[in-house]
Amino acid sequence: MVELAIKEGDAVVYGKTGTTGRVLRITELEGKAWAELDSTELLYDLNVLEPVDETKLKRVLRKGKRQEKEAPGGGREGEGEGEEKAPRVEDMKDEGSLDASAGICGAG
Known about the structure:
Elements: E1 11-14, E2 19-29, E3 32-37, E4 43-45, E5 49-51, H1 54-70
Antiparallel strand pairs: 1-2, 1-5, 2-3, 3-4
């Protein structure tokens, strides 16, 4: 395996979406190096990840937590007032049954 600039524990950013996180592990699959990020638990191609300064990572994480707290209803359980409730079965409207009379499945 080639020596990589990014290693486990490094703070990185995925430029296409702005996703940041720390590299949990680096693995090789089918000859390509991948990094698992702690923030998403997804694998990212090491060629598209960029190292990021620790202060930027902390700032992004703080901003994310602040937005979570400020979101309407908070989106978190047990916060009381303003909490969004999941729709109840009684509130859901039955739209009827699926019309499958055409016999077309859509599979190529």
